[in-house]
Amino acid sequence: MLKILTVCGAGVGSSMMLKVFAQQILSKENIEARVDATDIGSINPQDADIIITTTDFANLFRNTTCQVLPIDNLTDKENLRNQLLKCIEELQK
């Protein structure tokens, strides 16, 4: 099962919003994955297949083995959907 982490500074604002949006997208596409929201200080990148975060935090994960999705506009669900599905497709190759 895919493991997706949504990350923000405190783990309660934008990461929770991204978590809900990601779960809605995955549910609609019938993709099974576990999505958890967390704060930047608690994350272990090795625990995730995909990290969804803001562009500011994405740079902190440059040297990780997981896929990192930097999201600039948190309310643009279509952009998140497109990036997330593309990322999942890449992982399944």
Oligomer: single chain
Percent of residues in helical segments?
A: 25-40%
What's the overall average pLDDT, rounded?
Answer: 90
Helical region count? Answer: 3
Kindly describe this structure:
With 93 residues, the chain is an alpha/beta fold. It has a single domain (2-91), classed as Rossmann fold. The protein is 37% helix and 26% strand. It is built from three helices and four strands. A four-stranded parallel beta sheet has the order 2-1-3-4. Helix 1 (14-28) links the parallel strand 1 (2-8) and strand 2 (33-39). The longest helix has 15 residues, at 14-28. The radius of gyration is 12 Å and the shape is globular. The mean pLDDT is 90.
Summarize the structure.
By secondary structure, the chain is an alpha/beta fold. The protein contains three helices and four strands, in the order βαββαβα.
Descriptors:
4-stranded parallel sheet; alpha/beta; 93 residues; 4 strands; Rossmann fold; 3 helices
Write the topology of this structure.
Blueprint: E1 2-8, H1 14-28, E2 33-39, E3 50-54, H2 55-58, E4 67-71, H3 77-91
